Automatic annotation (TrEMBL), chain A:
<dbReference type="InterPro" id="IPR014314">
    <property type="entry name" value="Succ_DH_cytb556"/>
</dbReference>
<protein>
    <recommendedName>
        <fullName>Succinate dehydrogenase cytochrome b560 subunit, mitochondrial</fullName>
    </recommendedName>
</protein>
<feature type="transmembrane region" description="Helical">
    <location>
        <begin position="80"/>
        <end position="99"/>
    </location>
</feature>
<dbReference type="Pfam" id="PF01127">
    <property type="entry name" value="Sdh_cyt"/>
</dbReference>
<keyword id="KW-0472">Membrane</keyword>
<keyword id="KW-0349">Heme</keyword>
<dbReference type="InterPro" id="IPR018495">
    <property type="entry name" value="Succ_DH_cyt_bsu_CS"/>
</dbReference>
<dbReference type="InterPro" id="IPR000701">
    <property type="entry name" value="SuccDH_FuR_B_TM-su"/>
</dbReference>
<keyword id="KW-0812">Transmembrane</keyword>
TrEMBL record, chain B:
<dbReference type="GO" id="GO:0048039">
    <property type="term" value="F:ubiquinone binding"/>
</dbReference>
<dbReference type="InterPro" id="IPR007992">
    <property type="entry name" value="CybS"/>
</dbReference>
<dbReference type="GO" id="GO:0005743">
    <property type="term" value="C:mitochondrial inner membrane"/>
</dbReference>
<dbReference type="InterPro" id="IPR034804">
    <property type="entry name" value="SQR/QFR_C/D"/>
</dbReference>
<dbReference type="GO" id="GO:0020037">
    <property type="term" value="F:heme binding"/>
</dbReference>
<comment type="function">
    <text>Membrane-anchoring subunit of succinate dehydrogenase (SDH) that is involved in complex II of the mitochondrial electron transport chain and is responsible for transferring electrons from succinate to ubiquinone (coenzyme Q). SDH also oxidizes malate to the non-canonical enol form of oxaloacetate, enol-oxaloacetate. Enol-oxaloacetate, which is a potent inhibitor of the succinate dehydrogenase activity, is further isomerized into keto-oxaloacetate.</text>
</comment>
<keyword id="KW-0249">Electron transport</keyword>
<dbReference type="GO" id="GO:0006099">
    <property type="term" value="P:tricarboxylic acid cycle"/>
</dbReference>
<keyword id="KW-0816">Tricarboxylic acid cycle</keyword>
């Protein structure tokens, strides 16, 4: 059944094409048969950006005219923590790739060097906090994102409640990582 | 049977696909004919390319799978230290970072050339980062041990 309908469809298409003369073919093919009925999202986006650049439009939405809102701030913080952590991991990784074979500095050497500096304990704690909070925030807000991906939590009230929960919860989790476990 | 399938496929490839698909040969060769033993169902005949969307959606799924597994891997790494966890962390963190940076490039960098250059540079950086973490796991103390040393020895 499916195959026969397939055959009908395609034989129709093929015979239609067969009737086209070679001079007609290029225009007729592109406009009637082969041209996309719809454009892809990517093509639409490219068109949008081209038009904006061509008309020299300012950035939209204009960031500074909006009152900062919790949701937007949490969103950009999510991206900021993620990018910062990834940049640190990339930097650390490439740095160790250079420093370990060239200078012979392995990780225990570096730890001992930092120890020998005898930094103030609060400075060390601050450094650890700078590692603990971003990951705790990004993980918690990441779970918030996953619930959206699953289709839950879009109600405005819930959105703000989950937002504040993630904000305060990230500090609690970071402190747990530093002192609790 | 086989002949009709061949004809159909030929017709599909040469006549019914849009000119754009010519510039996207990987789409035509890879995604439209997933199972070469079976004829393509009628729903697979399209006058417009659809496979980029399929690619995007499978990428989206892969990202969620990775992220959910990271939510399990990180707490595990807090308590368990072994090479499997170390290499798993290296792969997961770099892949997640790579996809995140890729999205940032897509969002903020526009123009004809700059996005491509940035993505090329990002590829290089991600490969180096993964290589570096593997080197660190193999020749040095490894990721979990390193975090533990920062936490407990400093």
């Amino acid at each position: 059944m499916a195959l026969s309908s397939l055959l009908v469809r395609n034989s129709a298409a093929i015979s239609r094409l067969g009737l086209l003369s070679s001079s007609l073919r290029t225009t007729a093919l592109s406009s009637r048969l082969a041209a996309p009925m719809t454009t892809t999202a990517q093509e639409e986006m490219a068109k949008f950006w081209d038009k904006n650049a061509q008309k020299k439009r300012p950035m939209s939405p204009h960031l500074t005219i909006y009152k900062p809102q919790l949701t937007a701030m949490l969103s950009i913080t999510h991206r900021g923590t993620g990018a910062a952590m990834a940049a640190c991991v990339y930097g650390f990784s490439m740095g160790m790739l250079l420093v370990n074979p060239l200078l012979g500095w392995d990780f225990p050497t570096i730890i001992n060097f930092v120890k020998s500096l005898e930094l103030h304990p609060w400075l060390i704690l601050g450094g650890k906090w700078c590692m603990a909070w971003p990951i705790s925030y990004h993980a918690m807000n990441g779970i918030r994102h996953l619930t959206w991906d699953a289709g839950y939590g879009f109600n405005m009230k819930v959105l703000y409640r989950s937002g504040w929960f993630v904000f305060f919860g990230s500090f609690v989790l970071a402190d747990l990582m530093l002192f609790g476990l | 049977m086989a002949a009709t399938v061949g004809i159909l496929r030929l017709a599909n490839r040469n006549l019914l696909l849009s000119p754009q698909l010519v510039t996207r040969p990987f789409v035509a060769s890879g995604l439209l004919h997933r199972n070469r033993l079976q004829p393509a169902p009628t729903t697979e005949f399209h006058t417009s390319p659809r496979s980029l969307a399929a690619l995007a959606s499978s990428h989206w799924n892969a990202e969620r799978v990775l992220v959910v597994s990271m939510l399990g891997l990180f707490p595990l790494a807090y308590f368990v230290q072994n090479p499997a966890v170390d290499y798993g962390l290296a792969a997961a963190v770099v892949l997640h970072g790579h996809w995140g940076f890729e999205q940032i490039v897509t969002d903020y960098i526009h123009g004809p050339l700059l996005p491509r250059l940035s993505k090329l540079a990002l590829y290089g950086a991600s490969v180096l980062a993964f290589a570096g973490l593997c080197y660190f796991n193999y020749n040095d103390v490894g990721i979990t041990k390193a975090v533990s040393m920062i936490w407990h020895d400093l």
